[in-house]
Write the structure tokens for this entry.
Amino acid sequence: MVIRKKQAAKSRAVAAFTLVEVTMAIGILVLVMAGMIYGYVQTNAQAEWSSMSLSVQALTVQSVEQARAAKWDVYSTPTPGTTNEFAVGTNTTVFTSAVLIPSSGTTMNVTNVLQITTVTTIPALRQIRSDCAWTFPNTGATFTNTVITYRGGS
């Protein structure tokens, strides 16, 4: 009977975890959870940057498309009341737009610079360049989205 009690006590001692094993398991769990949370935070920041860059890119393309859609008749002589909307020479138009930031509900100012440059006169060809500068609020870094295209006169 005494032998059975000793064997039962010995088997219970062998089957239990030591304090060192429990501490190591908790330490590993904390490291794994911290890595998962850090990965989630980084993914969220990257998704926010991508959404802001995409909205600014849409503004950049919009200004280029407005310049491309403007009236520009190369071969007609200007008559009163029929002016070309497409400006001659190098012109720089700077305007500021407000972009809504979905995560915070605030707005961000975006500066758009539209440049129209004459490349050649015969054949009539102009370069349209739009640069949108914006600041990412989480880091304070400034980024620029650029679209460049050409337009021939008709």
